[in-house]
Amino acid sequence: MKKHETTRRWPWRPAMLAGITLAAVTATHALGSSSATVGIKEFKFAPTPLTVRAGSTVTWVNHDEETHTITSATGSFGSGGLGNEDTFAQTFTRPGTYEYFCALHPKMKAAVIVK
Amino acid sequence: MDRIARRGFLECMAWAGSALVWTSAGGMLSSRMLSPAAADEAPGGFSFVQISDTHIGFKGQANGDPVATLQQVLDRVNALRPAPAFVLHTGDQTHGQKPGAFDTLAEMLKGVRTARVFYVPGEHDVFLDGGKEYLGRYGKGTVGGRGWQSFDYKGTHFVGLVNVLTYKGEGMGALGADQIEWLEKDLAPLASSTPIVVFAHVPLWSVYPQWGWVTEDAGRALAYLKRFGSVSVLNGHIHQVLTKVEGNVSFHTALSTAFPQPAPGTAPAPGPMKIPEADARRLIGVTEVTFVEGRHPLTVVDSTLS
What we know:
The complex is a heterodimer of chains A (115) and B (306).
Chain A: H1 2-7, H2 13-32, E1 35-41, E2 44-46, E3 50-52, E4 56-62, E5 71-72, E6 87-92, E7 96-101, E8 109-114
Parallel strand pairs in A: 1-4, 3-8
Antiparallel strand pairs in A: 1-2, 4-6, 5-7, 7-8
Chain B: H1 3-13, E1 19-25, E2 28-34, E3 46-51, H2 66-78, E4 87-89, H3 101-110, E5 117-119, H4 123-126, H5 132-138, E6 149-153, E7 156-160, H6 177-187, E8 196-200, H7 218-223, E9 231-235, E10 243-246, E11 249-253, H8 277-280, E12 285-292, E13 295-304
Parallel strand pairs in B: 3-4, 4-5, 7-8, 8-9, 9-11
Antiparallel strand pairs in B: 1-2, 1-13, 3-12, 6-7, 10-11, 12-13
């Protein structure tokens, strides 16, 4: 098998490179990704800003009786209404600062920083 | 709320009611307790009912069954003699546009003995879809299908305003330039002696800006109302009774039929207030407004379920 692959390496190089790239992304995902939780309590998101690595999944939990939303400032993600103890999860694949707010209480502002 | 607690709650709600009457005369407010029988109207006058913040779809410790508490309120409305001329719903019909909530409320209000129900939206009714569903249901007959409207009843001019469709930034209500321009034109032909009733969801006065309990451009609208001898502004949103008089304008916020919220600044945040069930009855309810011909001030009666 190994020999066979070696002999085919040159013609397949672009595909191999693509495969390597994909493997690298997967590796980063496997090694660096994590899960993090943001709580909503008394009309506040905490922690904020939350810093995570690319590929991480962030889960929000609404501990208030009032409905809240996780609404991206750019519209790139949104939870809709979350009732008491409802959760919403979002995976962040690209680095950047993601600002969000609650559409029902726009004073509630927070951010996720993806590195 | 568990099963037993809810049964207890419903039993409590069946207790006889009491009411607080707000009478405005010459800009001075006074209040007294009133028995339901005293709500009779004078000949030529009329009464209407304001319900607010029904939050159908809410479920939590503050109220396990807002449908049940609303029904208690509606039963009370149906016991009024004579029946109210119409009902104003000042918004937050639904809790976060929960699926089916608009339908539930519409069905329940069909059982109210009154000629018509008028609506303005709350932020809970429009935040998911920018008002698409709300205006699809209640936009017909409003200005440009945008939800605001005016009508006259027995010499009183009623104006329903929408201040939740630009509910952004600092969480304040806002009317927007288009609506304020329309209001100016709507009021222009009226004699200053015409009694005016304005209704909208978020208070049109600065109740507590820190919690977003304010309409940022209300001042521009109120400027057009100042020349009138009697203006009553009825709002919801804050789930408690607060009143204020400014010249000839009296402001009044209504109770929710679902759950109370804390008084401004008395809690870390606004939101449904969990309180002992025995006290809950005192903090949810309905507003009845009576207009007596020849005496412009309206009598505003807030009835709780207690």
